[in-house]
Amino acid sequence: MNTLLSRRIPARPAALVGLFAALLAALLLLGAPAQAHDTLLESDPEDGASLETSPEAITLTYSADILEVSPLVRVTDESGEQIAEITPSVDGPVVTATLEEPLPAGENTIQWRVVSSDGHPIEGTLTVTVEQDAEEPTEEAPAASDDGGEGAADDAASDEATASEDTEAEEPAAEDEGGSLTPILVVLGVVVVGAVVAVLVIVRRRD
Fold first, then answer.
1. 61 has which bridge partners?
2. 71 DSSP 8-state letter
């Protein structure tokens, strides 16, 4: 009887050790695929960043080399409207999406999808807030107004010069008119003198 009990007692710890080993192996097998996926380490701009103006590109850095298999970066504005869908370049663990158009003012959502080094696709989302729209040629407006002011001054000077030329042209014309009246006055004078002489001659004859 004692012999049988002594044989059964060691069997229980052995069974427990075997069960524990099986559970540990199962946990390791379950955890292995999760650890194999690459992860996003950092982004430029960072998630949640607030920028004064739009960045020229979005750079994503992962924990291992990314496979060049259908990488994608999609950008939507704060209203949910898609404004860009970019096929980024892949250089080892670094993925770069160059923006052809600047991001609009407001909160922009950036969705990315790549294939990690283990062949599994991974994806994620980050947000970037832009405080103001990209500046249009508004800075050139003062220069344009300066040019306009100079142009207006030039136009005014040109108008004054034209007016002075017109005045000078009118003065000779007035002098010409005065000169044209002189012969008429001479003729009238001669006629008047002739008439007076004729009257005097007639009067003397009568006397």
1. 42, 94
2. E
